[in-house]
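ugh ok so i messed up the first submission bc i forgot one of the chains. this is the corrected input, ALL of the components this time, i swear. 623 residues overall. if the numbers dont match what u have on ur side tell me asap before i send this to the collaborators (the ones from the other lab, u know who)
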Amino acid sequence: MTTVDVMNLFVSAVLLAGVYAAMSVGMTIIYGVMKIVNLAHAGFLMLGAYFVFELYTQFHVDPLIGALLAFPVFFSLGVGIHWLLIRRIPRSDQPTLTSLLLLFGLWLVLQNLGYLIWGNADRAILTPRTFSTLQIGPIIFPTIRLVVFGAAVASLLALEFVLHKTWFGRAVRALMQNSDAGRLVGVNVEGTARVAFGVGIAFAGTAGGLLAMMYSFTPDFGGSFLLRAFVIIVLGGLESFAGVAIGSLILALVETFSILAIPAGYQPAIAFSLLVLALVILPEGVAGLWNKRQRWT
Amino acid sequence: MTDATATSKATISKLIPVAAPLALLAVLAAFPLLGPGPNGIRLLFVTLVWVTTSVAWNLLGGFAGQVSFGFAVFYGLGAYSTAMSLNAGLDRPVSLLIGAAVAVTASLFIGLPTFRLRGPYFAIATIGVSEAVRVVMTNVAVTGGASGYRLSEHGNFNQLLHFYTALSVAVIAVAVSIFVRRSKFGLALVAIREDEDAASDLGVNPFRTKLLAHALAAALTGAAGGVYTGYAAFIYPQGVFGFDISVAILLMPIIGGVGTVWGPVVGALVYGFVHEELIASFPQLHLLLYGSLLILIILFEPGGVMGLLGKIVRFARSRSGRGAHS
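and heres the new structure output, hopefully the right one now
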């Protein structure tokens, strides 16, 4: 294996990490604010993929614009689902049996609605961009991955801006750190939770659309990404946005380079092994390591 | 109302919890004598396997409040290791024990890293574990990989043998559940479910307690998988490690009523008898229906069938009580 090969793998890992980050950040927001593990995340990824697919095949909307359109649509969907289901379960500082089972049920419903509407045939979005590549020196960039990476990073930067420069963002960060203290200083918990849930679902929908440009999909699409998203947010320490970026990079690097050593059939087991490893070695995630260092110094 | 009738009423209401399960057991044991035909026995056999898994899930999910989405791992590992032991010539009870032991080992593998931590780690890990194990089993050559594993049985096929094996394992599961519910261990589990901090302040070790409940549940589920294999004689990864197995195992106790002894049994009986019909009439839709059912139960009647029955009984009592006073 030459240096160029390693460079190529590294580049593709970094490009993959961008998409992974966009995919996991929605879960982090929802967990951070509401302490709910969004098990239905996979269902929304899948719906996002089909949303972009339908727009492209029916109305010839460019998938990139489709993914952008998915944001407001899935935001409304998220707010609606919060109103219909989520606000009815008791609030807690810990994920409860109730919230886990409710969102698991929602996932089953979404997934099988998908089967009902679109059947189980593999779909893919093929545009002229899909197979083109861009060569810079000896390194080859698949165009579609570059585009998807750009879109993912742009959406993460927009989120970062909202979290740090708006009152909604401050409320979200306050609730993530301490929901009781947040309420004491006048944060509207119910309203913030509703919008945060909407934003989380919106990110899931958009990320689903972006993933659909790179992979073929069925209504079972999100399942393997759900586990990856878990691994990423556990690596990132569950509630940290910087942690999500680092977690995405770690997972993408491990997955990309493990192809060299582990047969492709075992790939889905890698994410799980990494999860167990992370739980044993870094239970507070990479961010926890950072905090520990700060405590020592 | 005289004292005598009052006392007899009191003894009757005390007797019901003892007599009703015994009557149910007697009916189940005598069921094959009533001439239900092979298909009827098969349906009841499958239902009894479900009763075992449902009661097992409830030990951890219901009593201790630790939701697992991955019980198919124990079911599948139990099924495979029992099949391999039977093929190696070991007799049935030993093979079932080996199936249970392998499942317990797997439960430690999941529980040791996750139960130490507070938060959603356990539930998260269980989502991945059955997928990971299924993938590995699909690729392992020893067990035939994706094409499945065949049990070569010696002697004639005896359906009743399998039926009574399933019945015994289900009875053991319910007995374990009753015992746990009444023991200090069971109280510790409930304490952990209600408030883990308070429980550990009172001297409960949450880590060890959860680990033990998980192992116990895994052993019963593994044995149930083994019982099923003995009957089916052919297993494949998608069939025993499938996601829908995990869904079924968690759905049954929730239908019946989590955290009670008899709720999971009722849930499994309902599921066992309805599932076959449902899957025949709506092959695509049954998971959609189960998902909707899960949402509805969680939102409107978290107590399941048992909770609903309790409400009806209380309502009827308050009605009759008011009638007596007026």
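quick check: Chain B has one domain: 38-325. that seems consistent at least. Chain B has a mean pLDDT of 86.
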